[in-house]
Amino acid sequence: MSLLALESLRLDAGPRCLIQPLSLQINAGEQIALIGPSGAGKTSLLHALALALRPSSGRLVLSQQDAWSLSHSARHQLRRQLMLAPQHPPLPPRQRVAVAVLAGQLPGASLARSLRMLFSPSAEQARQAHDALAALELGDRLWSRVDQLSGGERQRVALARLLVSQAPLWLVDEPLSALDPQRAQRSLGVLQQAARQSQRTLVCSLHQVELARSLFPRIVALRDGRLFYDGPPEGLDDATVAALYAGDETVMPPTPIRGHDADGGPREIDGAPGVDRPAPAPAPQLICR
Asked: Is 262 domain-assigned?
């Protein structure tokens, strides 16, 4: 059953075209990897799916509702059906990790429940946060402050927030960029298994092409804001991948490292508490004429 459909959706930002008219259907329970070179429009598309960017033209239909024909309040209610995990999650530095995770339950929660989660989580809420963190190898960080975390740990806190959410649609933007290959694969496996068990729909943008090809049944590829490929990984051979990334010297699709070493895998790339990896310089966007 269709959960979300784009009908000739186009995104512009002033004179820049972010997404050329694009039609796409996503069914309930699907797991989709979104790939493409830097500046291809992956993040813009995820924000459009999250109803954070209004299309210049076309339609976005979520749960049989034309999102941008609704009133502001009705569209706000519709947003409760999705959860967006950005690449660099905006976590308050002095917030406790448990509270940051439980924020995933705020959409749809009553005012009383929301205040309790934010200021005095119950034992059951703390257990839910701990279980989500433990699945991502962060169980010992439950009561740490966010500014004590590394960049990779913060990314996994954002994933833990997804695990406790009730949203049927999970949108995840580059969740592995600050993780070493082994931990990246384990974290992605946790996310996929949780989505599968709870029948969530998962759309995840990745730079790791080999992970996308080996772990996702459907791959959507963008280039210059246009749909380049949509189908099973078997149709995305090496020649097609080379054409997709042609001219993008910053992207080298890595080969995943499988399994664990004697110490449980190397440490995260950044390692230092509270320090994110530098954000990549913004790529030039396609100019529509």
From this structure: no
pLDDT of 254 over the 50 cut: no
Q: Report the C-alpha gap between 90 and 17 in whole angstroms.
A: 26
- The boundaries of the domain holding residue 67 are 2-92+166-244
pLDDT at 34: 98
215-226-218 Cα angle (round to 5): 20
Residue 10 resides in a domain: yes
Evaluate if pTM is beyond 0.85: no
Tokens read off for 206: 């990745």
Q: Which residues does 53 contact at the CB level (< 8 Å), separation at least 6?
A: 11, 18, 44, 47
Q: What is the DSSP string of 100-163?
A: HHHGGG-TT--HHHHHHHHHS--HHHHHHHHHHHHHTT-GGGTTSBGGGS-HHHHHHHHHHHHH
Q: What mean pLDDT, rounded, does the chain reach? A: 86
Please state, in angstroms and rounded to a whole number, the distance separating the CA atoms of residues 20 and 171: 20
Q: For the domain that residue 23 is a member of, what is the CATH number? A: 3.40.50.300
Pairing of strands 16-27, 31-35: unpaired
Question: What would the two tokens of residue 231 be?
Answer: 């189908």
> Structural domain tally of the chain?
1
Question: Do 176 and 206 meet the contact criterion of CB atoms below 8 Å apart?
Answer: yes
Separation CA 66–CA 63 (nearest Å): 9
Angle, CA of 44, 50 and 55, to the nearest 5°: 60
Are 132 and 125 in contact by the 8 Å Cβ rule? The answer is no
Contact 161, 167 (CB under 8 A): no
Question: What integer is the mean pLDDT of 47-60?
Answer: 97
